[in-house]
Design a protein that fits this description.
With 316 residues, the chain is an alpha/beta fold. It folds into three domains: 129 residues, Periplasmic binding protein-like II (D-Maltodextrin-Binding Protein, domain 2, 3-Layer(aba) Sandwich); 81 residues, D-Maltodextrin-Binding Protein, domain 2 (3-Layer(aba) Sandwich); 68 residues, Double Stranded RNA Binding Domain. The chain has eleven helices and 13 strands. The protein has a five-stranded mixed sheet, sandwiched between helices. It has a five-stranded mixed sheet with strand order 7-6-8-5-9, with helices on both faces. Strands 11-12-13 form a three-stranded antiparallel sheet. Strand 1, helix 2 and strand 2 form a beta-alpha-beta unit. Helix 10 runs parallel beside helix 11. The termini are far apart. Its cofactor is dipyrromethane. This is Porphobilinogen deaminase. GO terms for molecular function: hydroxymethylbilane synthase activity. Tetrapolymerization of the monopyrrole PBG into the hydroxymethylbilane pre-uroporphyrinogen in several discrete steps. One of its GO terms (cellular component) is cytoplasm.
Length: 316
């Protein structure tokens, strides 16, 4: 079949790829397009990248958990998918709510990048090395709680904005340090700003960190056939585990949660954590299960942590 299968799939209209407009979101959309072009032997003009402004991009002055959580980065994009204004949407997996609108599904995952958090500071080589009372900027409840857990003396301040904005604020001296996903920095070619990387043993990433997921309409066979060729099964198994874990624990932005699934042969190793926002209490779990049942493993890990923490832990 060779190249003809691609052109048959594409018919006469370009495949429309929906994305947010940040530099990182565009880099992820371009990576998706490049993989599709290579997999199907297609030219760039067979694809159209459609930039969609989301509510989350417009709210820069307060924590997202106060204004509705994760769906803020996906709502407008999902509306465009449901209205057939785009054919697929490229997202950072960690921005995705655990429940999707009827008619939409996560239909492909790209190979996962490095999952670690990066520590960036002109003042110290590591988080442990920061002077007492240092100010660290982060918009992530998970990172804030984990910093507090390791360094209760540190002042953690709310820190919104895209990746470039956060790096600029650090340069201007508004904070002494910040933490960012290493995957995003790598995708933008900014590895050189990293001071050190945080080991996942003491700093579990967010569920889905480093993984690009693609959302499309259920039953859209043309798009599904296109995506099958770039789908990474290993990442899919890991994400299904992590998202099932998150779904049990509430899936909102209000609870500091970390989770990481890794595939070793035919086994999934999963580690999960929930913390009080001030880092004062933490519950951890480590468990294993067969790759054939990622959802079951994630769900049982979530249930076990919920049990450990008791009913009031997540509520407060």
């Amino acid at each position: 079949m060779g190249h003809t299968s691609g052109s048959v799939l594409l018919q006469s209209t370009p495949l429309r790829i929906g994305t947010r407009g940040s530099a990182l979101a565009l880099a992820q959309a371009h990576e998706t397009r490049a993989r599709l072009m290579a997999a199907h032997g297609l030219a760039e003009d067979q694809f159209e990248i459609v930039v969609i402004k989301t509510t989350g991009d417009q709210i820069q002055d307060r924590p997202l958990s106060e204004v509705g959580g994760k769906g803020l980065f996906t709502k407008e994009i999902e509306e465009a998918l449901l209205d057939s204004r785009i054919d697929l949407a490229v997202h950072s997996s960690k921005d995705m709510p655990t429940v999707l609108p009827d008619g939409l599904a996560l239909t492909a995952f790209l190979p996962r990048e490095d999952v670690r958090d990066a520590f960036i500071s002109p003042k110290a080589k590591t988080l442990a090395g920061l002077p007492e009372g240092a100010v660290v900027g982060s918009s992530s409840l998970r990172r804030q709680a984990m910093i507090k857990r390791l360094r209760p003396d540190i002042d953690v301040v709310m820190y919104r904005g895209n990746l470039q904005t956060r790096l600029r604020k650090l340069e201007e001296g508004q904070v002494d340090a910040t933490l960012l996903a290493y995957a995003g920095l790598k995708r933008l070619g900014l590895e050189d700003v990293v001071t050190s990387l945080l080991d996942t043993t003491e700093f579990l990433p967010a569920v889905g960190q480093g993984a690009i997921c693609i959302e499309s309409r259920v039953g859209d066979e043309r798009t599904l056939a296109m995506l099958q060729k770039i789908h990474d099964q290993d990442t899919h198994v890991r994400l299904e585990t992590e998202r099932a874990f998150l779904a049990v624990l509430d899936g909102s932005c209000r609870t500091p949660i970390g989770g990481l699934a890794e595939v070793v042969g035919d086994t999934i190793r999963f580690r999960g954590t929930i913390l009080k926002p001030n880092g004062s209490m933490v519950h951890d779990i480590e468990t294993r299960g067969p790759v054939s049942d990622p959802e079951g493993l994630g769900r049982s890990a979530g249930e076990a942590l919920k049990e450990m923490a008791g009913p009031n832990f997540l509520a407060s």
